[in-house]
Each structure stands twice: as structure tokens, then as C-alpha cells.
Amino acid sequence: MLSLQLRSEHLAAIVMHARATAPEECCGLIGGSDEGLARNIYRLRNVTANPFLAYEAAPEELFAAQRQMRDRGENLLAIYHSHPRSDDPSPSETDVKQAYYPTAVYLIIGLGGDEPVVKAFKISEREQRWQQVEYVIVDG
């Protein structure tokens, strides 16, 4: 896949989702084209036992979002979630252990500073490692 391409409205939508659920973590999916161009954001409910420290998408919402993506001819491009207290977000040990979609980009929204910070990562659950990757804002 080419690098993830988001419109500024997508970025605004996931930051708004993170702010709306803070101090709990939010989560969601981004669907789009084979070329990496995001088309739709799928907000999901966080149903984990401790939403202040982790996220787990509501299974019925996750499956519904995946069905919608399939119906729309989209691929899963990215999974996003927030770290509400971080000003420099990076994957936690739990994030790495639960990174079950190796082809997806993982976006993490940090809300701990003056301005939100959104970083992108490729995570290998199998190899228990991650690396930061770039994403591109494409408007117009």
C-alpha cells in the first residue's frame, strides 16, 4: 500500500472523536482505496473494561463497519485510537500485543499537549515491534 492519504476533514473527525471521549480512549477505522486514499471514518464504541488505559472496539460495531467497507468497495487502511494524556503518542505494549491487522496503519491521537498530535505507525504483533510512518494530508 502507498502511504496513507487523509483529507483534513478526516483528521478533524478523528481528533473530535478523541476529544469527545476523553479522558477515555476512543477507537475507530478508516476505509479507503487500494492506493491508500481514505474515504470514510468509522467511529466505534470502546467497550474495554478499563477505557482510560486501553481500547477494544464493540464487536458488533466492528463487524458492521467491516461489512460497510466491503459493500463500498473499501479496504481497511487504518485503525485509530487515542492516548488522551500523551503529548507524544506511541504504541503501548498492549497496542503492540493487540495489533491484529498487520497491513493497517495505526493512528494514535495524543491530547496531552496544547494541541492534538496524530502519529502513524506500522505495528507487527507477530514480531512485537513498531515503527513510525508518514501519512499525507490531501485536500482539493
Can I get a quick summary?
By secondary structure, this protein is of the alpha/beta class. It has one domain (4-137): Cytidine Deaminase, domain 2.
- The name CATH uses for the topology is Cytidine Deaminase, domain 2
Proportion in helices: 10-25%
> Which class of secondary structure composition applies to the elements?
alpha/beta
Contiguous low-pLDDT stretches (5 residues minimum) are: none
Number of helices: 3
CATH superfamily: Cytidine Deaminase, domain 2
User: What is the highest CATH level, the class?
Assistant: Alpha Beta
**How many domains make up the 3D coordinates?**
1
> What sort of overall outline do the alpha carbons produce when their principal axes are compared?
globular
Task: Kindly state the number of beta strands.
Answer: 8
Structural notes for this entry:
By secondary structure, the chain is an alpha/beta fold. The chain has a single domain, classed as Cytidine Deaminase, domain 2. 23% of the residues lie in helices and 34% in strands. It contains three helices and eight strands. It has helices spanning 8-21, 59-71, 93-97; strands spanning 4-6, 27-32, 38-44, 75-83, 105-110, 117-124, 129-133, 135-137. The strands form two sheets. The chain has a six-stranded mixed beta sheet with strand order 3-2-4-5-6-7. β5 and β6 form a beta hairpin. The model has no long low-confidence stretch (mean pLDDT 95).
